[in-house]
Amino acid sequence: MRRLREGPENPSPDRDKPLTNYDFALARRQALMLVAGQAAITAAVALVCAASSGVPAAIAAAIGGAIGTVATFVQVASGFRRSAVGDARAIARGFYRGEALKIAVTVVLFVLALHGRHFAPGPMLAGYVATFVAYWVALARLLRAR
């Protein structure tokens, strides 16, 4: 296990390894797979809501899941721009920009969804929260691969 304290006496083993185009492409592909996983989870939650509570609940769950999925896609698209390959500062800026955009998109989409129609907030929130399961699955796969 890597030490949490890194400094002159404990240099990071990754410090001298530059980010390669292959690493960037792999990370981008993994992030897009996360978005696909969120879409699949959204569909599953919508089907469960349809079976248990009816079509209106399924639509609300699908909208909630779509909000989470679209917001993550915006973050991935912003954070993994091809123009940032090999430039650590550009990558960091892209991730900060992506996170800010993700929050903004989430707020705007929730406001639009709750203002425009009268969806059941419970299934909508359940659909949104269910998309976070994809992060845990991705983390588990990453830890298992190591």
Question: What keyword list fits this structure?
Answer:
5 helices; 146 residues; mainly alpha; disordered N terminus
Write a brief structural summary.
The protein is mostly helical.
Please tell me what the overall shape is: flat
Unreliably modeled segments: 1-7
Give the N-to-C terminal Cα separation.
11 Å
β-sheet strand percentage:
under 5%
Helix content: over 70%
Beta strand count? 0
Largest sheet: none
Structural class: mainly alpha
The number of helical runs is 5
- Residue-averaged pLDDT, rounded? 84
Based on CA atoms alone, the radius of gyration comes out at: 19 Å
Order of helices and strands: HHHHH
Describe the 3D structure:
The protein has one domain (25-145). It has helices spanning 21-53, 55-79, 88-116, 121-130, 133-145. By secondary structure, the chain is mainly α. Mean pLDDT is 84; it is low at 1-7.
